[in-house]
Structures are given as structure tokens and as C-alpha cells.
Design brief:
Number of strands: 14
Largest sheet: 6 strands, mixed
Helix content: 10-25%
Strand content: 25-35%
Order of helices and strands: EHEHHEEEHEEHEHEEEEEEH
Radius of gyration: 17 Å
CATH class: Alpha Beta
CATH superfamily: Carbon-nitrogen hydrolase
Length: about 260
């Protein structure tokens, strides 16, 4: 059983949802026959802490746009946006199916080095979705640094994905940790990062990647806008886990 996953690595207009949605709509229209479309972290605004100025409520412009894109593509659309709920702000990943059914994951690990933890409220629940016979766990950027939160307990997922705004100066960490997460979790791992320079002068160089359960890269993007569709093989994943069942010796634990 195969899963087609499309990676959209793109530049992002700073705090301009209208421009970003228009640009991404053109890119998504180029994708032919896929099951899952992955967009970067905060794909409508860039990685901004100006949440009060740019946040949207659920089921507003971006969420409705994602429903439209999912329906047109016949695929799940995933990416994170800034959501306001009551008086709190969330860096929220939306999982939007072609039917319009939506689920979400709120980023747990907030990047304190830019005071994301002072602006946003963190999540406390992991999201695992089943789609086309695959179990998929989507996480956000800084979550990549925390292997316990990402851990594939009892093989609860087949694909681990990260949407990100990961800067150039730490890109070697991104590259290495994506491979590590694939190896330790015996899972496909996909990381989708942005490119370009934001209005804060922070540079991003992409390096979006598709990594096999063995840690071997299937695809590694360069510093350019790309739309890449990978085909993931469930049978090969299952065979690998049977031949090398290290997950049976994993330590049990509970996350608080």
C-alpha cells in the first residue's frame, strides 16, 4: 500500500496571508494525483511573534482556503497557522481532509529563544491520524529537538512529519535530527521547511527532506522553491520492521 506525499517548499510573504494563499494556490494546482500536501510552519505569515495582529479564528479565511484546496486536490492539506481561541494564541497545525473534516495539533515545544512561549500557548496532546491505510503523526519545527515527544511508542504511526521555519544557521541540526528521528522510530520521516529571508533578517535555506525508516534520504531539497511528490511504500516499511524489530526492546514511559 503506497502513499503519495507532496512537499511544498516555498518563500513566505511576511505577515501577508492574502499574498501567501494566492501563491500557494498556484503551487498546489501544479500537483497531480497525491494523497497528502504538506506546507511549512506559519505558511500564511512567516514565523512572527506579532500574533495579535495576524491571528485568525478557526474556520476563517485560511481554514476555509485549506478546505477548498483539499477538496480540489482530493488530498489532505497540512500546515501550521496562527490561531486565536478565546484570549489565547496557538501555533496550530491544521489537518484538513477533502471532505472538510478537520483536526489539529497545537505546537508543544515553543521556541523560547524568540519568546514564542511568551506569546503562544503550548499544546499537550499528540495527533495521530489515519489516512489511506497509513497512521501519520504531524509535529511542528522545534518539536524535532525532543525525541521523547516524537517517540513512536508501540509503532503507533508509520509516518512522522514536521512543518518548520528552521533557519540556515542551524540547518545542520535539522538535517541530522530528521535522520535520527527516522532511525530511532523505524518510520518514514518528512520535514518541510521554508526558504527566503524574512523581515527580521533571518535566512532560511529549505533542506526539506523525505527520509526512509532506515535513515536513508529518499529526497533532499536544495535552497529553492520546489514541489516534490514522494511515493512511500508501506510493504517495505513493514518488512523492515519485521527483519529488525528493535521497537520490541523500547523502554516504556509516560509523558506528563
Amino acid at each position: 500500500m503506497n502513499l503519495k506525499v507532496s512537499v511544498v517548499q516555498t518563500d513566505i510573504y511576511w505577515e501577508n496571508s492574502t499574498a501567501n494563499l494566492a501563491s500557494l494556490e498556484e503551487k498546489i494546482a501544479q500537483i497531480d494525483q497525491t494523497d497528502l500536501i504538506i506546507l511549512p510552519e506559519m505558511f500564511t505569515t512567516g514565523f512572527t511573534m506579532n500574533a495579535a495582529q495576524v491571528a485568525e479564528p478557526m474556520n476563517f479565511m485560511t481554514h476555509r482556503w485549506m478546505k477548498q484546496m483539499a477538496a480540489q486536490a482530493g488530498a489532505v492539506v497540512v500546515g501550521s497557522v496562527i490561531i486565536k481561541e478565546r484570549e489565547q494564541f496557538f501555533n496550530r497545525l491544521l489537518w484538513v481532509e477533502p471532505s472538510g473534516k478537520t483536526d489539529f495539533y497545537d505546537k508543544r515545544h515553543l521556541f523560547r529563544m524568540v519568546k514564542e512561549n511568551d506569546v503562544f500557548s503550548g499544546g499537550n496532546k499528540k495527533l495521530i491520524k489515519e489516512w489511506k491505510g497509513w497512521r501519520i503523526c504531524p509535529l511542528i519545527c522545534y518539536d524535532l529537538r525532543f525525541p521523547v515527544w516524537s517517540r513512536n511508542k508501540n509503532l503507533e504511526y508509520d509516518l512522522l512529519l514536521y512543518v518548520a521555519s528552521w533557519p540556515e544557521k542551524r540547518i545542520q541540526v535539522w538535517d541530522k535530527l530528521l535522520m535520527a528521528r527516522a532511525i530511532e522510530n523505524q518510520s518514514y520521516v518528512i520535514g518541510v521547511n521554508r526558504i527566503g529571508t524574512d523581515d527580521l533578517g533571518i535566512n532560511y535555506v529549505g533542506h526539506s527532506a523525505v527520509i526512509e525508516y532506515s535513515g536513508n534520504p529518499v529526497y533532499e531539497a536544495k535552497n529553492q522553491e520546489i514541489i516534490y511528490t514522494a511515493t512511500l511504500d508501506k510493504e517495505k516499511l513493514h518488512e523492515f520492521r519485521q527483519k529488525f524489530p528493535s521497537y520490541l526492546d523500547a523502554d516504556d514511559f509516560t509523558i506528563h
